[in-house]
## 1
Amino acid sequence: MHQPNRPSVGRRRALAMAPGLFVALALAVPGLVAQEPAGTIKVEAHSSKWDYPKEITVPEGSRTHIVEKGDTLWDLSGKYLGNPYAWPQIWELNQWIKDPHWIYPGDPLIIDMTRAVATAGSVPESVSGLQPDRRRADPSALRRPELGFAFQDFIQLPFFAPDGAEAHYKNQGAFTLTGNRRDDRQHLAEGETVYMNGGSEQGVKVGDRFLILKTVARKIKHPATKHKLGDVVQQVGVIRVVTPQPKGSVAIIERCLDGVEVGDHLVRFTEPANMPLQLRKDITDPVKVAPNSPVVVFARDAHQHTANGDMVIVDKGTNDGLKVGDVLLAVRTRTFPVGPDEHPKNATETTTHYIGQALVVRTDAQTATCRLLRTTEEILLGDTLTR
């Protein structure tokens, strides 16, 4: 059996693992040149680990690419779709590739060019220049680099809908999960079949993916000012359409970490960008607190105490200059007595202590969602996150 040469190693990214960045460095074999759709195309025989299709029919709006030595799904997604982070959109159309970390010279890929407009330009500036690490290495020695924000975080992300959840769903043109294949299940998980109320008459196609949204809290008020902040909506998973019908569609729950329920809402899915872990070093006490700094007003699952990896929402957003990729320092202010024992409250000093760091992963006009990167103690509602 043919054994590929040692692979080039790409940086691991997303979906808990990385986008398919390993490419077998076997000798390239003659194959078809990437071309525009032209009916059924025969694929030349070549050495591959996968049971590749021997002929392919290219759908309308798509094109073929025959893998060459050095290709990665990451690079091909950047070339054809304008966004390397959209690599799963290529993989999902070529499911005979069992492990996206490996593609072989001569393998045929179908690429949906209609997705290029949706994915182009959606990568944050802070990560848009990152490229896979192409150094040769022993795959058994690989260690996945820590990410500040990855796909599994994206599908658990909460945010405020200031005008209410229903208004948000209407504004987004959301569909609804109307049922599931097994009526005895209330909380649905990955791989289960579900039904939605959007079909081909609404432009839904085979392979379309939708983000699942759930209302998790209503009429939340600011813990200090009591100002109304709105409802909290949480992202809980992704579905993929397998059978569109005129007014409704059959879909599969492709990924979720929380229970999915009938009645949850669906909006068009755009592949998120992973964000590398970048920690600040200016953490020496006392920490300088910038004027008008955001404070924590909500934590995922309504937790009162949060720590590493948790999601919190703060009371400042784009209107206050916050942007995705900002790293904020969590600070707690302490007042301590310095006067005579008989009058301890009359003579005090105030200082600030570093208690953690948080990455801004979503911004809205007046609020932002942050992922806690490092904490030295639990983060509480009302704690300050300063720039």
## 2
Amino acid sequence: MKIAFVLLTYNPDEPAGIERSVGSLAAGLRELGHQVITIVAGPASATDKPDLVRLDSVTLVRPMLFDDLPRVLADPGPVRDEVRGILVEHHVDVVCWADAVVGLGYLAPAPDGVRTALMAHLVRGDSRMHESLAHKPDAVLAASSFLVSESARAGVDTTGWQVLPNPLPRRGTPPPSGIREGLRRTGPLRTLARPDPVKGITGLLRAIPDDFDRPVQVVLADAGFELWRGMQDDVRRECQKLAEGRPQIELLPPLPWDEVQDFLAEAALAMMPTTWPETFGNVAAEALSAGTPVVGFHLGNLPHLVGTAGALVELGPAAEVHHISAVTSRNAQPPGAEEGFARLWAATTALLSDPDGYHAASEQAVRQVAGYEPAAVASTFLRCVGVHD
């Protein structure tokens, strides 16, 4: 079977959730023996593989502002025709619009006879989401039950939606118990994020207790989009300033997707300080797959994803779930967040100081994401869209 994903912003090793989930799902489908292409915006790169099909009708600058999209897609005719032509040329059986806008779900340029799926990774109550649903895709796939309920709360008709979790890049490899105990005693704390205020990295670093002497290692990787010009540079500079004179803070370069799970496996804890409700939580899932407990805020899908495999604390007053178009604030830290970050660090030190509780969380971690391997999620995807493996 031939399957296509459409995601204009996709690039291999892109530090962004939708792109990572599409890459892992495509890998799972190939593992099951299917042919997969991913249709993306230009410009082309010398490292592009044959299964990456670049559009001539849409070129994106890097980094792109979300406000640039209406201009880029102002004339939908050329991109609609080009995508439909690619689907015909490649004899595609199933096409998945990976988002209402950057996945072209609102245009839905599928030829007759091709089954369609629309992915929902963000809470969107905008007109493009309603237009996408009006095309009546054969399946609407949400990354979590949390996303389904919040979308309904935003006024979207979620009747018939199905939950498809983001797949892991591969099965995790937890370290042996002796190594895990060594990590509990002296190992580093680690996290990965794009430089975005809602990821909470600056709040995390600012609140490190003065007597905390372990390495706190943060991988910062620029994504191909930002909410205002220079946003990622602004956040990176603030992180660098917070690291000055504090040798326990280490800012590390980006990692390829296939190295993330091993990186998190060698951490005492994975930190998830996001102050905005995650609709899935890729970093948390990859840490759990390696037996690494997760510490973060009790927001979004994290309570379901993490369960008892770590420690989640309240950030502060109830955090609102924003539509993607509304997440533009330069100050993403809600009122009372300082106390929330203090609670996060208290929970961190408490978990590291509790051998029994820590190892119980580590053992539970792998169970939390059982069945999230690429081929397993790919099988679910096929059933959701009404075809067989």
## 3
Amino acid sequence: MSELPKRLFVTGTDTDAGKTVISALLTLALDAHYWKPIQSGVNTDSDTRDVRALTGLPQERFLPEAYRLTEPLSPHEAAAIDGVRIDLNAITPPALPQDAPLVVEGAGGLMVPLNDKALMLDLITRLGLPVVVVARSGLGTINHTLLTLAALRAAGAEVAGVIMNGPPHPANADAIAHFGRVPVLAQVPMLGDLSPQGLKNACARYIP
């Protein structure tokens, strides 16, 4: 089992892969700060708020978003509705001590547009953090995950590993590890207890 890097970027194979719960588990595992650079749909949703509720960690561990967009849409579309343009140059890593662990959560998958030229993948490569890919455990995940890994590597991003989310499916995990040439860092089932204590228990059980 590979060791987690102290600072990492969490992406997913698509929007509902389970990034936010896995990000919460990783934040607990690393005793880290959490940062969501771009949040869409702030009137109804906030991953920062959700991760704080899931982990029970203090407010100072949660760093302000660079962009808070009103509508629950792709960032480029939500930004256009709000009359702003997402500028990658304005998204800079938070000022933390050099040894402070950090979990950064993306929005959607790699190819989500941020503006008329840049994708989420461009933000990942700009930040330069090792990437953890969150993937569903079930049917279809092999194709989606291998495509995501291929795109990351083509862009020169460092891949830390994959975390499978959902009912255990060892054959899918084995195929991803083999064909993706990547460690499967954890296989996390659907969690019934999403309280802070439940997350701590799951973290101790499933996250290396």
## 4
Amino acid sequence: MNTKMKSFGFVLALTAFAMAQEAAPVAEAAAPAPETAAVQEAAPAEAAPAVPAQEPAAATEPAAETAPEAPQAVAQEPAPAQDASTGSATETAPVETAAPAPQPEPQPAPVADEGDMPAPKAVRGVDAESQPVYGAQTTAPVETTVRETRVYRLKAEPIPMKFSFGVQGFAGMNTLFDNNWDFEESYDGIAWKAGLFAVVPLNEYTMGFKIGALFDHSEASASYSYGSDYSKEAHVKFKMDRVTIPLLFMLKSMYSNFSFDFGMQVSVPVQDTFKYSYEKADGTPVNGNADMIDLDYRNSMDFALLLGLSIKANNYLSFDIRYECGISNAYDGVPGWRINELTSNTFLFGISFYVL
């Protein structure tokens, strides 16, 4: 309840203050202008209409005895008259008026200079900023929003695709798996490659080719059980060295350094070693190290599809992601081992340095 009464009292106080602000201009308008009041006081007695006056008192009486009491607001004290013959001032009785002298019509106040003009007062219900300022020059505002300015500043310049070349390196994971779905074994390991590359643009901004020549090293190994009761275990490891030639088609935005690469890769094996160890039925261990190229078990070329992403940090450095999906078998005609239909998948992260 106290809170409601205080709120109500506060609203009443604001209302009274607003009404007083409205009444102030009215009171100022009702008051006569200072110059008009001065004119009224300085007006001579002759301006008032003549009325019959009483007989003047004897000249021999002292001035204090003949002077009447102070006149009321309706009477004015006339100025002392001078004798035309002697030039001396003589006192006359005050003039009594039956009605107040008519007030002269108020004269309009002189227009002040624009520099002295006060600011207009605020009107209730109208924003002070929306009221016109007298004497101020108005010009059409320049409509420029912050959002338009930001868009103008953030608008990027087109990034051209130019001929360049450099060195690059990749590292990641390699997997060898059998294309036959009934063979569940796979071999996993590491892979890395390094070499040269070049970018050849097809147009000014968005399309180009990326070609290279890299040395590729990969390893893959696995262990699996075999035998009638699967009590025996075999260990297998593949080690390959190849020269790969990727050919990628590049697509990028005109205003971005981010590009999407896709294409294919041809690999030529230069070394391929197959290591194995297992136990015979009588428990005799067997260890072997076969050169698959010399034994003519290795195919002469490998083919793979490539997908990649690349983002250029500056004119000299870029970061790459690449996935290689093998579409050809690595081995053929290997007796005793189910590796004739192995193919490889590789996932790589890379970095490229641009010389030009």
